[in-house]
Amino acid sequence: MTVFRAYLRILKKRKWPVLMMSAGLVLFSLLSFGTDSGTGYYKASKPNVVIYDHDDSKISDGLCAYLKKKCDVKKIPADQIDDALFYEDAEYVLTIPKGYGKALTEGDEPELKIRTSNESSSLLAKQYTHEYLRTVKVYLSAGNDAETAVKETASSLDRAASVKMERKKKVNMTELGKATQFFNFENYILLCANIYIIGLILFSFREEKLERRTRISSMNFHRYNRDLLLSNLVVSLGIWAVYTLMAVLFYPQTMATDHGRLFMMNSFLFNLCAMSIGFFVSAISKSKNTVTALMNVIALGLSFLCGAFVPMSMLPAGVLKAAHFLPSYWFVNNNDLIQELDVITGKALQPIGQGGLILILFAAVFFGLSLFFTAKKRKA
Amino acid sequence: MFAHNFLYTLKILLGRRSLVFWTMAFPLILATLFYLAFSNFSASSQFEPIRIAVVRSEEKTENSEIFESAIATLSDPDQETQVFKTHYTTAAKAKQQLADNKIAGYIISSDQPSVHIKENGIEQTILKSAVDEILVDTDIIQHAAAKQIEIEMRQGNPNPDVQSITQEAADAVLNEDVKIKDISGEHLDPIMVEFYTLLAMVCMYSGTIGMEAVSKHQANVNAQGKRTSITGVKKSTLVFSSALASWLIQLAALTVVFLFTYHVLHIDYGTHWMQVILLTCVGSLAGLCFGIFVCTLPKISQPNKDSLIITLTMVGSFLSGMMGVDMKYFIDKNMPLVNKLNPVAMITDGYYALYTNIGAARFYEDLFSLLIFSGILLVIAIFGLRRQTYDSL
């Protein structure tokens, strides 16, 4: 208990940097999931469309109504459209000039102007526009007036193929996608928290004078190390519990399913790995500034290279191959596999189980390395 | 005295390895990580033909043959309009391939084709839309052909050539074109914003150097501060010479980061180089003033002040889009005041305005905001530094 009380005293002394960092990480978590960036559904199935209708004819109204059905039509003022296109809040901007409907009815070939982002969704929106107007033109060519042509077009375009979702279990796909995104982001959070808190506190315990006094004291050295390890485990589990609780609060439906339980287990194993990395960093660091510097490099590096911030499907092949040697890759890969799971079978769980074992292996390796470097420092 | 203090501040700061790391090595490492992570971004977001399977109809009908022929056209690799990479298989195999994520979806061809998918996404939406369009076109062609046959029969032709009429109707429908012009111009890369936030973060990290340089003149911080406080030299001379030395070191670090990102990583900063350099200098000044301000905050220890600068800079960088460019847009749209007060966002937005040529007004608004931010913090810091008295040291 002496070691544990000392541990908590050091934690209390460092409470302001720890609280500041924790508040920053909680803020990151809260704000990230109001945005549309992340894994799971990287692109929405409905393109984001902005329409400026200067015509106000039956044909333009019909086109707008059709696009409203097929796309997410947004109202963005013209002075903000450049930003919207750059950040892909708008993927397709359609401007219908005045007199367009009349010109089309009279058999002319008027031109529509569009602006697109560099995404496949904008191609889809363009295809919808093309399909609607081409159908209207076919009906106009058959001798119909604008109103009849619009009506017949709406009726024709209602024809649709049936869609079957080949998922045996019904899940809230949107929430599942966001939960996956949350747990992938947790890679950065768990690494930062574990390396910073555990790394700094262990570094304080390893201060030369304090360590020498401890060694010549009557305290059993094995007991001392055991208590230190348990103290670290308690703090690390506390960090994990806070973020798991956040996941349960934000994504209750998902966390109540098998997916949620698997996410928790996966993040628990990764948290052990992050804790071991914290041990390792404290063992190799020569100053507290080194701990902070390594925390930033390791947490950001692993997050960017292993698919935590950028979806794995978008990473270059060479980077993905190299990422296999990093623990975060297996954590994020497991999260993506869990998201795709339908029915929980042994075969389906096998790759996830393998990823979990690799995480435990990484944890053991980092523990071993930290013991090696600690012993080396002591001998020196 | 100004020159003497300036020179020795330079020597002291350059000898601090942690400062050299934060201002130079860390940004270079981060820039390399960004480059590795994002180098495939533009290519991967462009359209690639979608992998699907088709289960051929057991009963051959006219509609199912038309449908399969249309899918084959959309899957032709020699066509520019290739939408799918299609292979033909049985229903059971297609189901397994879908479960194994080898295909985005599969179609069972019949008089009423059905689309089978496992999840929602853009590929599945494109698949469904293409199938719907084939059904719609088939429907329109059949209606147009039926109408033409009716007209011909009314005109006294009891045996109209159905095949020919249908072909003409199909040609009329499929060759009908709509003029749509894309006036977008060159598509700019939103990933550039990540590198701009990195530069903005480096600018703000000049706060750690500034704080280091100014804190040695504070009597309650270290012994050197006590000695300089009782000298005959004006405090303003010492503080400004230290601040200038810090600023120059930071500008040197920024130059290295700039040259690395421009020449090695090929990051595009636009064409307005004078404005880019001006923004960088002012951004670095803002970081320096921030560091000097934090240095004067009472009742906070030096390590905690360091943590405060680093934490606030990281939060500011996050809100400016460092961990996802959408964050900057989200904050600008929904909480604009946050980024109006965030110096990292001001610097990032300035680089963005120069890259996208969105207008000089936006750039100068960011520049003046940074100058006002720097001025306010510097004035508060000056009041905090001057004429301090201590009960005991």
TrEMBL record, chain A:
It comes from the Bacteria. It is found in: Cell membrane. The chain crosses the membrane at residues 188-207, 228-251, 263-284, 291-310, 356-375. One of its GO terms (cellular component) is plasma membrane. It is a multi-pass membrane protein. One of its GO terms (molecular function) is ABC-type transporter activity. Residues 20-372 form the ABC-2 type transporter transmembrane domain. The keyword Transmembrane helix applies. Keywords: Cell membrane, Membrane, Transmembrane, Transmembrane helix. Gene3D superfamilies: abc type-2 transporter like domain. Its main location: membrane. This is ABC-2 type transport system permease protein. It comes from Catenisphaera adipataccumulans.
TrEMBL record, chain B:
Keywords: Membrane, Transmembrane, Transmembrane helix. It comes from the Bacteria. The keyword Membrane applies. The chain crosses the membrane at residues 20-38, 237-261, 273-296, 308-331, 367-385. GO terms for cellular component: membrane. Coiled coil: none annotated. Pfam families: ABC2_membrane_3. It is a multi-pass membrane protein. It is found in: Membrane. InterPro entries: ABC-2_transporter, ABC2_TM. This is ABC-2 type transport system permease protein. It comes from Catenisphaera adipataccumulans.
